[in-house]
């Protein structure tokens, strides 16, 4: 049995007449980081949502940790995939404190008691560098802090892989670094991650592979150095020339 | 609900109660039923916009546009000919209220749901909560002001409703509105004064609640 955390084969997804993902295949070994790049609307977020189980593919198969979670006649819902997802808009529960945001799923899903859930929560909040915000409400935090809470909340559930959907795109420039630092720490700790990002610096520094998409298809997959320094495809060169020159 | 509330005769517990309490009970049941019915409609409209959801929403509004007397007469016919065990029961009266006032409950529920980003429930699902668990633990607390607004709005309107209540009430059931109407029809204006004042007071309190929750729903 291979040691793949994620394997997708020929996945396809339409929204009405729009083909968002068209026959995408990818494989990600455990502990590796895959960065998804591409222009807006190219299907990157849909790939993440398919991996998380928030969308169901029309064709193809998805395996997570060697287990088939989507395919012909098979659909495992998100709540049974043990995949952590960090959203662009943080998606923190506004009526709960930071601590409650991180403990609620532990208590209701993992059935951890209050003390255990709190201990795990404080441990992950320390890991993302904001234990002192445990009793604050999300509205009292900066964007960067909110995103770090979202990461902590996902980590508290011991996910097999972490999915990041443009986690820094809604942040002020000076807050981007604090989130990327947390993600780099996770990468160093061996967490398997799929990251949709426009942060080329992060993709170059942290990713093991970079996948470039356009119009729902994979255009090119390569190691970061190769893709950024010597892309094979013309479409990749065009995209990078626009991104890297601004 | 008192035992026998759906029978042809008013339940024992009901007989000794005042008109105000009977009226409040009927209005409360109507508010609860309409709000419970409004949540799935609002969910469908907000989360699954399309032809089917638009049709369901418009159908609810179409029933609101019909005169109360038309709905009441239709339900009298329906109760007498088709669903005779329901004829002249509180259940049929509450159903009439729901048909008439469902849009008033849909509005606040929809406004509240529009402010709950779908990503919140999606995040809850990736954290291990099933679809309805995610809705119950995350969305429901957030739309509570909208639910309270819907309850108050339907309660307020059902308390004042006259034609359907006159035609569909169980025997012996009198709401504040029908009590005022029958007292004034017989010329007992003094007898109508206290219930009328109570109705104005209850309406004012419900309206205050609606306005307060409206402010919360709109983030004011």
List key phrases describing it.
A: 246 residues; alpha/beta; six-stranded mixed sheet; 11 strands; globular; B: mainly alpha; MetI-like fold; 11 helices; disordered N terminus
Shape of chain B: globular
* Strand portion of chain A: 25-35%
Overall average residue pLDDT of chain B: 84
For the terminal residues of chain B, how far apart are their CA atoms? 36 Å
Q: H/E element string of chain B?
A: HHHHHHHHHHH
CATH topology of chain B: MetI-like fold
Oligomer: heterodimer
Order of helices and strands of chain A: EEEHEEEEHHHEHEHEEHH
Estimate what percentage of residues of chain B fall within beta strands.
under 5%
Q: Tell how many strands the DSSP assignment of chain B holds.
A: 0
What is the total number of structural domains of chain B?
A: 1
Q: Which stretches of chain B are low in confidence, meaning pLDDT under 50 for 5 or more residues running?
A: 1-16
Helix content of chain B: over 70%
How is this structure best described in words?
The complex is a heterodimer of chains A (246) and B (220). In chain A, helix 2 (98-108) packs parallel to helix 4. In chain A, a hairpin with a 2-residue loop joins strand 5 and strand 6. Chain A is globular and about 55 Å long. In chain A, 35% of the residues lie in helices and 28% in strands. With 246 residues, chain A is α/β, with parallel strands linked by helices. A six-stranded mixed β-sheet of chain A has the order 7-8-9-3-10-11, sandwiched between helices. In chain A, strands 2-1-4-5-6 form a five-stranded antiparallel β-sheet, with helices on one face. Chain B is globular and about 65 Å long. The two termini of chain B are 36 Å apart. The model of chain B is unreliable at 1-16 (pLDDT under 50). Chains A and B meet through strand 7, helix 2 and helix 4 of A and helix 6 and helix 7 of B.
